[in-house]
Amino acid sequence: QSVLTQPPSASGTPGQRVTISCSGSRSNIGSNTVNWYQQLPGTAPKLLIYSNNRRPSGVPDRFSGSKSGTSASLAVSGLQSEDESDYYCAAWDDSLNGPVFGTGTMVTVL
Amino acid sequence: QVQLVQSGAEVQKPGASVKVSCQASGYTFSSYYIHWLRQAPGQGLEWMAWINPYTGGTKYAQQFEGRIVVTRDTSISTAYMELSSLRSDDTAVYHCARSSIVITDLIDFWGPGTLVAVSS
After folding, report:
1. Within a 10 A sphere around the Cβ of A51, how many other Cβ atoms?
2. CA A68 vs CA A23, A24, A33, A65, A88: distances in Å
3. Whose CB among A64, B41, B45, B105 lies 3.0–4.6 Å from A92's, allowing a Cys bridge?
4. Cα(A88)–Cα(A44) distance, rounded to whole angstroms?
């Protein structure tokens, strides 16, 4: 079961900016950094943002992340058709001693 | 390059057990935790367990305690996840993934997944 709350969907036209929120609690986002994953249909999740706002090598700078308190957000600027995907936030949970994930957001490029 | 190669799809009957393997290559196996996560059809990601390949230490999510066993064989850089007393709602794609022993909370690479279908 998902512990972090995300909107089920988000959409935008090419070139627009889309933001996805992720809400947690003190034991997860409130105490640890947030990571974001992109999952294309039928594939494994791919790390998109780590440590709240850092991008792994190869991830375009159109993707950015932020965190405040027990919430985080992912922004995709200059939306492109290949950004159409599911996005998940994740954070370590100190009570669970394991990672917890968001409910997932499907981004559609109109 | 980093690879996590998982065993093939399985079909099991309710009440049976399934064992999924995850063979790592391209990095030092003992330096990264192996996590097991699953994704039911059309659903989100659910963490199940981790194992420290160096020590063999494990942690299981409470909802799987008593039904899951995670092991490893360091000689072949392979981790295993066995889930017993299968139910229909265990039908899912099971992924292994890794996180550094130093930065435990960052899962940075995932295996492709193994479909486990539970059906009578």
Report:
1. 15
2. 10, 11, 10, 11, 17
3. B105
4. 12
> Residue A63: CB partners within 8 Å, gap ≥ 6?
A36, A48, A49, A55, A74, A75, A76
> What integer best gives the mean pLDDT of chain A?
95
Q: How far is CA A38 from the centre of its chain?
A: 7
- Quote the DSSP letter at residue A50: B
State which amino acid sits at residue B54: Y
Joined together, the tokens standing for residue A25 give 């609690």
Contact B52, B71 (CB under 8 A): no
pLDDT beyond 70 at A55:
yes
Interface mutation vs chain B, best among A33, A67, A86, A92, most B CBs within 10 Å: A92
Share of chain B above pLDDT 70, in %: 100
Q: What is the pLDDT of residues B50-81, one digit of tens each?
A: 999 999 999 999 999 999 999 999 999 999 99
**Does B47 sit within 8 Å of A100, measured CB to CB?**
yes
B27 reaches A (C-beta below 8 A): no
- In this structure, are residues B36 and B59 in contact, taking their beta carbons and an 8 Å threshold? no
A99 and A1 Cβ atoms separated by less than 8 Å: no
Nearest CA in chain B to A103: B44
DSSP per residue over B32-71, as a string?
Answer: EEEEEEEE-TT--EEEEEEE-TTT--EEE-GGGTTTEEEE
Q: What 8-state DSSP symbol labels residue A77?
A: -
